[in-house]
Amino acid sequence: MDTPFTSEQIQFLDQRYGRKSRDSDAVQEFRKDIARWVEQAKNQNVSRMAIQNGLYGAIRLKLGLKSMNALSDNQLPEAREVFEKFKEDFDV
Q1: CA neighbours closer than 13 Å in the CB half-sphere of residue 45
Q2: At what angle do helices 25-41 and 48-63 cross, to 10 degrees?
Q3: Nearest to 56 by CA among 77, 75, 83, 74
């Protein structure tokens, strides 16, 4: 069975229409920091997703965000404060 597109065409389409993050570099780095900590904090009783959802919920509540996708660069300092407090309170 022949593919309808060449590999070059597929690569072009990926670059043109592929999923791109709307987050700034600073927000992406913040999310990576969260992911690294969550990976360390998980254990056999509490999943990575449960920890991440708890932290994201705290950040959203404090900043009044509908979702974490709405996090902007100027909200990062306060979001980082929430993250650091969460880590202090729940680091295992």
Answers
A1: 1
A2: 140
A3: 83
Cβ proximity of 55 and 38 under 8 Å: yes
Q: Could you read off the pLDDT of 69-87 as tens digits, one per residue? A: 899 999 999 999 999 999 9
Cβ-Cβ contacts under 8 Å for 67 (sequence gap 6 or more): 60
| Mean local confidence (pLDDT), 14-31 | 76
Q: What values do phi and psi take at 46, rounded to 5? A: -130, 125
Token readout for 18 is 């592929």
- Crossing angle of helices 76-90 and 48-63, in 10° steps, is 130
